[in-house]
Amino acid sequence: MNGNRRLWRATAALGATAALAAGCSSAASDQAAAPVAERPRVGIVLGGGGETGIAWQTAVLAALGKAGLTPATVDVVVGTSAGALAGSYFSAGLDLEQLVEKERSGDVATAPLPAGKGMTAIPTEIIAALGSTEGTIEERGRKVGALAMKAPTPISSADFVTYVSSMLPGADWPALDFRPTSVNAETGQTVLWKKADGVPLAAAVASSAAVPGFLPTVEINGQHYTDAPRTSFSADLVKEKNLAAIIYIGMPTPNLSNTVEEEALSKLEAGGLRVVRITGGEGSEEIIRNALDPKVRPRAAELGLRDGAAATAAVEALLHP
Fold first, then answer.
1. CA distances from 102 to 61, 260, 295, 302 (A)
2. How do residues 142-197 score in pLDDT, each as one tens digit?
3. In DSSP terms, which residues pair with 45 in a beta bridge?
4. Which of 233, 180, 173 is nearest to 209 (CA)?
5. Nearest partner of 194 among 58, 79, 275, judged by Cα
6. Is the dihedral of CA 173, 111, 45, 59 positive or negative?
7. Calpha distance 245→89 (Å, rounded)
8. Burial of 214 by CB count in 10 Å (0-12 exposed, 13-18 middle, 19+ buried)?
9. At a CB cut-off of 8 Å and minimum separation 6, what does 11 contact?
């Protein structure tokens, strides 16, 4: 009888141990199977803005680094004109704070043209075409493109591309999906260049920053490209990249081509897309008015740090919903 009791107790103990082990195993399995929270798929859209736009946007992006905005937290970067340069710096993972210090000190490369001409370097006919709202955007792009191809400029297309190459972090496209925008001067069609197109990075960025009448059109595969009005691309980008959010960074620059996606973004936002807009605060008028003046870049960098810092909380909430 005592032997039976001892056997029963041993069997019960083994059963309890087995049950405990099974429970632990089940808990561990449940924990392993628990889904890991994925970050939202995020795109950055950078507008134009000339010389001062490069400084302002670079500083905004530097400030947003404190909110956790890095190439590792972004799925695509689209840059227009000034935004193509600032976007290339961000996408390549450069030290943006160091670049901002260079902006503050004036130790930066500027447009390869005589200093001091600013907007007056652009023929009045082209300024009028850039500001026109007549016709479709593609029709306006063709008109600006035709004028740009005829306008004399103090530097050739090839030399301009070489110069832009010296401003970039390297010849290779970044690992992050980076897309400089431009406009076909012959057709008026908007293009978002990407690595798969096989176009050299410097040529793609130069074609985006080729302010018509100020800098030459850029020849790529027998076609000419310039910084003319773009058609909206946000909706297609969101669909292609399955984006949950877009951070738009750009000041409104009516006398320069820009990618102001405000209407498209508002529609997408109404459909559930999360959007953070950074379009400049107090003092922006000075930056816009002097968009082609390199001497204003230090001031633009200061304002960019301020505007980026003001958007930090919104970007943090977007990245960590």
1. 15, 28, 13, 12
2. 999 999 999 998 889 999 999 999 999 899 999 999 999 999 999 999 999 999 99
3. 78, 248
4. 180
5. 79
6. positive
7. 21
8. buried
9. none
Contact 303, 281 (CB under 8 A): yes
**pTM as predicted:** 0.86
Question: Residues near 197 by Cβ (< 8 Å), separated by ≥ 6?
Answer: 204
Encode burial over 12-33: b for 16+ CB neighbours within 10 A, e otherwise: eeeeeeeeeeeeeeeeeeeeee
- Residue 230 phi/psi, 5° resolution? -100, 150
CB 15 within 8 A of CB 48: no
Percentages helix, strand, coil for the chain, rounded to the nearest 5? 55, 10, 35
DSSP, collapsed to helix, strand or coil, labels residue 1 as: coil
Q: Burial of 105 by CB count in 10 Å (0-12 exposed, 13-18 middle, 19+ buried)?
A: exposed
Nearest to 191 by CA among 88, 79, 85: 79
Q: Which amino acid, residue 22?
A: A
User: Look-up: residue for tokens 């176009």?
Assistant: 199
Q: Over pLDDT 90: what percentage of the chain?
A: 74
Place of tokens 């041993």: 10
DSSP symbol at 176: S
Q: What is the residue whose two structure tokens read 């449940």? A: 30
Per-residue pLDDT tens for 5-36?
A: 443 344 434 344 443 344 444 444 444 444 44
C-alpha dist (Å) from residue 304 to 33, 122, 203, 210:
44, 26, 27, 23
